[in-house]
Amino acid sequence: MTTIHFQSPSGEVTTLKGVVGQSIMELATSNGVSAIEADCGGACACATCHVIVDQSWTERLPAPGVMERDMLDFVAEPTSTSRLSCQLHITDDHDGLLLHLPSKQS
Amino acid sequence: MAIVILGAGQAGLQIATSVRQKGYTGKVVLIGDEPHPPYQRPPLSKAFLKGTTDAASLIFRPAEALAAQGIDLILGQKARRIDLIAKTVEINDGTVSYEKLALALGARPRQLAVPGADLEGVYSLRGLADGQKLMSALTSANNVVIVGGGFIGLEVAATAVAAGKVVTVLEAGPRVMARAVAPQISTWFDKMHRDMGTRIVTSAVIAWIDGTDHVKTVTLGDGEVIAADLVLVGIGAVPNTEIAAEAGLECPNGVLVDAVGRTADSDIFAAGDCAFHPNRFAGSYVRLESVQNAIDQSKTVAAAMLDETASYDAVPWFWSDQGQAKLQTTGLPFAAERHVVRGDPEAGKFTVFHLKSGRVIAADSVNSPSDHMCARRMVAGGIPVIPEVLADPATDLKTLAMQRTA
User: Fold this and answer.
1) Where is the 2Fe-2S ferredoxin-type domain (chain A) (predicted)?
2) Is A106 within the bounds of a domain?
3) B11 to chain A, minimum CA–CA distance in Å?
């Protein structure tokens, strides 16, 4: 199991344990993290599963693909470390990953 | 007070979670006729069929997580009757009282009305059980005939042909996906599927399906006989309105609702595939079968059930993954006066904009998510465009799309 932390804009942290291979989006939605809406269910089609990777983690994640980069331009509050959580799949290296949740998805 | 929701699909679940998110503390009862907790349907014709995602990962949220939110899940129960006066719903195992009732009844596959359509080996695809049957049948099938060149048919065709099957798509219309996308998009996907090895027959008339107990052949109106050990019928869906109609609610093409999703009975609402609703993007009443509509309309209905008055006004969008191609559409392509192509169809990356009165009313994007997201804003904002500017690769679409919403 890999521990992932989700921090809300108000500072509240939700800590979940994910399975290797699972997407961060699946981990969040199946555990009721409502800030991750994920309307399309992980098809990289809606840009409503936005997360902001903590600066300390940015270099440890693979770079976003072309489709994801295009969609990221359209999230509600884009930042330089924004990602779509449906495109982030959990590996052993992600233990302790800190993600910030945006205040809104669209 | 109790909010009761009939239908535990995408729309039903959204209504339940939205009323909770809005702070409603009364009872919430979500009733579904399938045995599974609410799950995602779109992957059934895509990742699930390919085997890259399993049934468990289609479930939105485990039943325990719903229980923790105070959502009472009643599964495997068919709603039999609504009593508008007593404000009750009869289900298999008893009667449930409501103060507000939401109908998220969904739709079911349209049946093919030809002799032999009831043979073993003829499938449709709507629910998880259908998906499991189709998947297992596909493993042993060699000759696959798909009736209907719409989204489901073409998504399944791409998976089947990639798995080495002999695949024929029979489309009654002059082109694939004719009701939903621009002609240029149909042409592009037609070629893509043919290049993958699928045979597509347009303007196809099916005379009958043959076989003794299991399907063997499909005979066309022109006499051609096509070998088939698996037939998938994907010719659209019909709304599940019977229970509403029997209760006396008007159901012209789906359950008739107003701008907030309310029926003529002020305590009954409808959302999702089954709801016939006024839609400004259609310029009329319409029934939309999409995840977007299920989610956004359900949010409106959840608010209306708690006496908020915001009208449903979300821009329609949709996606379809076929082979390696991602099709994303937005708006409703009714009554377009002209089409403008942006990008390069040859390179497999382009968008067709549907224009009416100088505005974008819809857009279909192939492998161009950025165009799609811009188009959503253009459709929502009713932004005036000049066709030549729209088609010009030098035009920054994002700037154009943001002009009203910035």
Assistant:
1) 2-105
2) no
3) 11
